User: Fold this.
Amino acid sequence: MLAFVFWHWPFPDVRPRRYERSLVKFHESLAKAKPEGFCGSFTFRIEGAPWLTDWEHSYQDVYLLEGSVALDRLNAASVGEISGEVHDVVAREAAGGTGGLYQLREGQVDFAHACSGIWLPKLRSTSYPDFYSQLLPWTEQPGVSLWRRHLVLGPTPEFCLLGPAELRPPQVEGVVSTKLDLIWPKPTGRR
Assistant:
């Protein structure tokens, strides 16, 4: 499974509630469009991401995909017949954005309950198998997943531990902790 992650922020004169309503309409339209290979989407308010520090209100969208072929279909659907108009509204309200592509490496996918992201690098001296083993105390927890950046696409460290509660980060230099607040789909029974 892949996740296309898109961080974005509205122009200062766009009220956050208005921007969030536009985001929800866009995600609802994508759910109706159902492009092949698209497994669902989530949008969050995000705090603590150093690649977004210049913006008072920042957001993180996650688009789950069966594979990279689905990226083309998602792109076409986002500006297509069903989603095009609402996409254009959000695009006009957004001051900017940046994105990345991530692959699920370990754990359980549970974006609906995610509220914590730990972004971390792998040390040069550590092999990937050893790195994954070192993270087992986190990835074996219910609802925690480990994602690896693909093709150096994105402004983040290489890995993200995503979890349903505030995670205590591993003791590695370069760790970034982010707080997530789910907007879409509408939160039900947060843990």
